[in-house]
Amino acid sequence: MHTAIINIKNLRLRTYIGFNPEELQKQQDVVINAEIHYPADIAMTSDNQKDAVNYKIITKNMIQLVENGHFKLLEKLAADLLTVACDHSDITYAKVSVDKPHALRFA
Description:
Number of helices: 4
């Protein structure tokens, strides 16, 4: 079995994240990285997109979740993004990291 590893790197988006008054009113930057694994034997031989995990759809769903969301904790955002990353029956492993680069500005 051959495993494909898809990386989504440095996806910079804006969302409402935090619970301080200023954070509730002003969107902040977040940077998202994801790693998604799935068995790619069929896709490798067929060279057909229907046999592969469509990471463009996963990325668009992540963007929609973040840009339309309101989150108090990074942990909740990361968990929701992980759910999106795993939303395909062929995915065997996924990890997501979320960075809030300007967090200290709101501290």
